Amino acid sequence: MPANDTPPAQGLIPVDNSEACIDQLASGESSVASRELPSRQFMARVLTLTAYGDDYTTCFNAALKRRGIEVEPAQWSGRWLHRHTRRRDIIGIHWPSFLYYHPESRRKTWLDLLRFVLFLGLLRARGVRIVWTAHNLYPHEGGRATLAHRVARRFVVAVASHVCVHGQGAAERVMREFGVKQADLVFLEHGHWIDFYPNVIGRAAARERLKIAPRAYMFLFIGACRPYKNLEYLVRSHAAMQDDSLLWIVGRFQSAAYRQRIVQAQAEAGGGTTVVDGFVPPEDVQVYLNACDAVVLPYKEILTSGAVMLAISFGRPVVAPRMGTLEEVICEECGILYDPQASAGLTDALRAARRRAFDPTKILARAASFSWDRSAQAFTEAVLDRGRSAPPG
Fold first, then answer.
1. pTM, two decimal places
2. d(Cα 276, Cα 211) in Å, to the nearest integer?
3. What is the dihedral of CA 55, 100, 305, 382, to 10 degrees?
4. Which residues face 250 on adjacent strands?
5. What percent of the chain stands above pLDDT 90?
6. Quick one: pLDDT at residue 31?
7. How far apart are CA 285 and CA 288, in angstroms?
8. Coil/strand/helix, residue 24
9. What whole-number distance in Å separates Cα of residue 145 and Cα of residue 139?
10. For residues 233 and 292, what is the distance between their CA atoms, to the nearest angstrom?
11. Do 292 and 316 form a contact (C-beta atoms < 8 A)?
């Protein structure tokens, strides 16, 4: 499934807290690894933080490698960073909060935020470049209201040589919120996932497997079930249609309390909603997407959506709010965008989607127009080529 803000439990490597590691970082000395490779000493590499095998970083890093760029996972440890980083390397950060945020403990959050500031500051001082890919303005958990997130975002922007965004809408919001200069932005395409997931089951077989009638109209939400996805609003809006369409909500609930809120919304709305709570294996994604007629993603807040790209990569139209970069991806032939401020906006959009006959071929063509390779090219030209032109220090 597309990336979200919750890493796998085993993904985050513990921070090395030793003062020796901090001193080593501050010294700026060449690492053992660098001295063993003199012929590659001044070749820039991309060292990735907060990339845990999610689909986005898997595809983007593969595209960088196809361009001959060395990409390695970095460990969030002072000892590792001292030994393995060198001047003009790039530290690529996708989700900064993974490195410091502990929703259950304010004390842990601030201690790890201190380490976060210290490590990145020392890396920047020794000539390592930091690049943040802004998948969202603030983490979905806590958001802008959380002081630690505001401090972390401001610091990342201050030390970053570049901030990557996925469209003009995202660029404008990042510049407005953080004061980033246009010249420091790198515009990346969010590539498609056509053929990335298995896609061999047809509509009839998928519906038979899910026990859905051939002529029934099926709306689908698929992905991590979290409060910012606005699923209770989706349940109520679908019920307000007062028709015979089906709504399926498929994905893992990360909070029992939020799951209960959806159960309550279901009870109040009556029938018509099916909830499948649990992780969706990659080979089963095709079943739900090929069975449905339209994908609904009623975000409360969003900057960039991997789920939108997933839907159109299966030729499915998308119903979503007009915000972030969504209107740069969802064209007239690919779905319905609604005003998130309108009280009946989603219900009206669902009705409009049901009335329309979307062409899967045109939707797939739209998805195919977004390229990981062009994204890697833009990153290379803006970040890596500039670094190679600088004299070695």
1. 0.86
2. 13
3. -80
4. 222, 276
5. 78
6. 37
7. 6
8. helix
9. 10
10. 20
11. yes
